[in-house]
Amino acid sequence: DDDDDIPQLSSHTLAALQEFYLEQQQREGMKTSQGFNQYSIGSIEEDWQLSQFWYSDETALCLAKEAVMAAGEGGRIACVSAPSVYQKLKELDGKDFSVCILEYDRRFSVYGEEFIFYDYNQPLNLPENLLPHSFDIVIADPPYLSEECLQKTAETIKYLTKGKILLCTGAVMEEQAAKHLGVKICKFIPKHSRNLANEFRCYVNYASGLD
Asked: Where found, per UniProt (predicted)?
């Protein structure tokens, strides 16, 4: 029998696999059903292997509103490794600002021309049409709590911004954040949809509404 060499799944494994596919189909069905917002936080699930932890809805909204205020009318906002702030900005549906997302995870390419592939290991490997100092504010959340990651992300931030910087990273990075970006810690404490082991803070280099 030609089928003898084909590995067979046990009935238990097969049932588990079918259950997984059913759940996946249900999730996709919910996403495509009427009223689904492609920009809602969680519409693209966290990938912990990429050190992804989405902000809570309240935090994302607070940071998005701060960015709009800081950018001013007709302002341009860049979200560097901060997709949940980008999503919240799109939910605000403002006509008086524009926004783009620089992100390593190509799942966010569903957002079309506003998505720019970004690898912090190559901080200045950016599209030619992304002109230096062309954003009124840059919001960044480096994926790793290391000075190397912060320093490289800082190169990108300084290239993009006209001046204003809103950095979200661990409290342990306070000295390095001041050293590489000249930012100071804010009173506002960002929260994530899942609690993180490390204390998280916001840092800015301008008079913000986060104090």
From this structure: Cytoplasm
